[in-house]
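Retry 2 of 3 after timeout on previous attempt. Resubmitting structure tokens to design endpoint.
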């Protein structure tokens, strides 16, 4: 029997892949999509401990020691690039506490980089990032409210400081895209409208607001979910602010 030298996984990964696999040129598009992005969790260690986090911060020395080293990560990135990966997403834990992160970032030059951070150390890295030569840089951060942001993490950063750093990144790093993710809780639901204005003022390009995934930390910390009615009216208010919908005209969607 002929020895198999490579393993090719032809299972579709999404509904879109299923559709593409039925197109007249399935190979072309199917593989282009599969090969496009690589996500690397560079470490599970984090300098913040969010009470709802799915990636429970693993600061235990033994666990961190058994993670891939930055040299091993760079090797994976180089191999991924050699087979056509054009975008790398680096996340954690917290990327900026990873030993050797500077070299990992350098290995991503020339392609698109999607960087997820809690923002605590971002200020120190802005000058370095501005000197890098990425095809595109996207900085993504987490902001879970205004005053309530600090309530949902240990060692957190205030919303003022975080947004100031994100605004500074926009000013200093040419062409950078920025985004914010907000995980809903009972407190931040009332702050969403005020957050909207502050995110616009900080020149944030994209905002995602989501219900938390039900993970062990959510259960352990008894995460306070917002009431459905509060979620519905907050969503209606945001839509109304963003699209300039007049009072009452969203009643047809059942929000009010
Ligand atoms: C695990 S964090 C790691 C990156 C970085 N340290 C940060 O704070 O953005 C990545 C993203 O996952 C989101 N996240 C964490 N736990 C979640 C949960 N239980 N449900 C939904 N999103 C969650 C965070 O809001 C954050 O935007």
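Retry 2 succeeded. Sequence:
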């Amino acid at each position: 029997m002929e020895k198999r030298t490579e393993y090719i996984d032809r299972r579709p990964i999404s509904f879109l892949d299923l559709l593409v696999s039925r197109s007249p040129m399935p190979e072309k598009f199917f593989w282009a999509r599969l090969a496009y992005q690589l996500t690397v969790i560079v470490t599970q260690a984090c300098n913040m401990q969010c009470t709802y986090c799915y990636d429970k911060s693993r600061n235990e020395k033994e666990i961190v020691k058994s993670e891939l080293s930055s040299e091993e990560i760079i090797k994976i990135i180089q191999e991924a690039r050699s087979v056509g990966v054009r975008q790398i997403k680096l996340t954690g834990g917290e990327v900026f506490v990873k030993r050797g992160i500077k070299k990992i970032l350098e290995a991503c030059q020339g392609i698109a980089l999607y960087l997820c951070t809690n923002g605590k150390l971002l200020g120190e890295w802005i000058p370095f990032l501005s000197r890098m030569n990425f095809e595109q840089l996207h900085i993504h951060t987490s902001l879970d409210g205004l005053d309530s942001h600090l309530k949902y993490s240990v060692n957190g950063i205030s919303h003022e400081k975080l947004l100031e750093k994100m605004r500074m990144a926009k000013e200093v790093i040419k062409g950078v895209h920025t985004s914010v993710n907000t995980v809903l809780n009972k407190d931040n639901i009332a702050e969403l409208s005020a957050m909207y204005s502050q995110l616009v003022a900080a020149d944030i390009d994209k905002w995602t607001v989501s219900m938390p995934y039900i993970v062990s930390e959510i259960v352990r910390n008894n995460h306070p979910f917002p009431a459905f009615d509060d979620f519905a009216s907050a969503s209606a208010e945001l839509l109304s602010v963003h699209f300039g919908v007049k009072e009452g005209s969203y009643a047809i969607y059942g929000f009010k």
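Attempt log closed. The longest helix spans residues 228-243.
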